[in-house]
Amino acid sequence: PSTAHNMSNPNGPVPPPSPPPFVFKQIDASEVCLTISDPVDKKALEQATVIVNGIKDADDRSKALLDVAKKFGDMTADMETYIVPKHDLKAAYDGLPQEHRTALDRIHGRVSTFAKAQRNAITDMQIPIPGGFAGHKVTPCSTAGCYAPGGRYPLPSSVIMTCVTARAAGCETVVCSSPRPAPITLAAAYISGCDIFIRVGGAQAIAAMAYGIPSPSADIPTVPPADVIVGPGNKWVTAAKSMVSGMCGIDMLAGPSEVLVICDDTADAEVVAADLIAQAEHDVVARPILVSSSQAMVDDIKEASKRRLESLPEPNRTTALTAFSTGFSVCCPSVSACVAVSDQIAPEHLEIQTRDATSVGDSCKNYGGLFVGKDAAEVLGDYGAGPNHTLPTGGTGKYTGGLSVFSFLGIRTWMRVDDRAASQVMVEDSTVMARLEGLG
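Now predict its structure.
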């Protein structure tokens, strides 16, 4: 992590660099496994380790956090505290144009409705056992730490996706952290029910939420240690989350964002190209992936992508072109073979644009979020159709799903014996098993 500094050029302004050429390679299905990589960058881990340990081991964590936040440009030098007061969150919301407030309100409502429905899908239960009962209770963690990136553009949607979900799960305290927050980010935190907002990013934010920051004065609240830390972030955030995992829970170790489109000869090349570009312009390391049963469609989508990218404004054009060079296309002999390739990749976002798209989608096993049909654009999931947009990347969709209320819930089992005589069959079985395991 570093802070950029502007430096004057005695020879006048430097012209912007030319955008890179369009490259969207086609690979064989057998090469797909080579694209899966470790989500934790080794160099970033070395740097994050210094930052995290520096805050964790400091005699004055509050001062250590303030110092490192200013060093890396999260805060300006004149700021006295890393906490944004609640009244400033409300003022940010009240100061938004009505159109922006209305959009936030509607998105909040849909995400909250979906999260609450998830929460209601799992309940306490009990069954009879000899002489009594056994069951489980579903309880939320106490404190949730929610991270929202603060890069080239504000990401209020990430604030809503993380904080609203924690609230729906029933967490007592919701802490949100984001560097250089724009008014729309603060407004999103307000409407999402954030209790404590930290204007800090990167590894230092993860350290603050994992280990807690004692209050330095009466007017600055204590940041309690989080039971679970969630939310997307850059490679330093991912590295720091890998460090604190075990000290607290985390949602996932997320790598570069991904979209994979499965399509056949019935797809609209312009629609697919638009969806690939929408993902590619997120980040230079984003991965647009196309898997099709039609070589002609692969060629048409490649041509449409190249043409559309030529009219994309900067800096999005250069970002997307760079991302396309890390992506790829695969042509398979059938749609079922396309599904097999997709399941191997386990993409973050999976779009299905084929005949009988619902059945094809049902046959897919590994993905973060599924978007069925050409009208179910991934962007609708990113910006609040209801399901969460914090999704597994880098192949981790093979064993986990995206962020949900379940990320904040614990399922704790219990048993009770009311009738000693009736429970004797369990006592007898336990005695036999203890002797078999050398404990009798």
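The two ends are 58 Å apart (CA to CA).
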